[in-house]
């Protein structure tokens, strides 16, 4: 519900803290779950959690390449005025 409310209001929403600051495996699992649930980031209580949070919530090189391909495809003259197009075999919406 928090993610849906934040999206409707156009604001950032962070997943809560993982109080087990010494259990990085637990933190990584919670961060991955937060990404799946749609959170924009995660609250941290210890510097040891920074790298795992950045890894979970940052786009991969492949995701960045896909996003650039979508932007380029919508910038193409043949996409002008279209709300959805096919990029690399998948339908994407503006």
Can you tag this structure with a few keywords?
two-stranded parallel ribbon, two-stranded antiparallel sheet, alpha+beta, 4 strands, 4 helices, 94 residues
Sheet with most strands: 2 strands, parallel
Q: Total number of β-strand segments?
A: 4
Number of helices: 4
- On the 0-100 scale, what is the average pLDDT? 95
- Give the SSE string: HEHEHHEE
Give the oligomeric state of the chains in this entry, treating copies of one chain as homo and distinct chains as hetero.
single chain
> Shape, please?
elongated
Alpha carbon gap, first and last residue = 25 Å
- Order of strands in the sheet with the most strands? 1-2
The radius of gyration computed from the alpha-carbon positions, rounded to a whole number of angstroms, is: 17 Å
Spans of at least 5 consecutive residues whose pLDDT stays below 50 are none
| Helix percent band | 40-55%
Going by helix content, strand content and strand pairing, the class is: alpha+beta
User: What proportion of the residues form beta strands (DSSP E)?
Assistant: 5-15%
């Amino acid at each position: 519900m928090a993610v849906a409310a934040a999206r409707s209001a156009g604001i950032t929403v962070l997943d809560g803290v993982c109080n087990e600051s010494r259990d990085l495996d637990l933190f990584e699992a919670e961060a991955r779950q937060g990404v799946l649930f749609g959170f924009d980031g995660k609250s941290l209580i210890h510097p040891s959690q920074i790298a795992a949070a950045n890894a979970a919530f940052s786009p991969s090189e492949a995701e960045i390449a896909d996003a650039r391909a979508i932007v380029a495809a919508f910038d193409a003259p043949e996409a002008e005025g279209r709300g959805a197009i096919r990029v690399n075999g998948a339908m994407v919406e503006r």
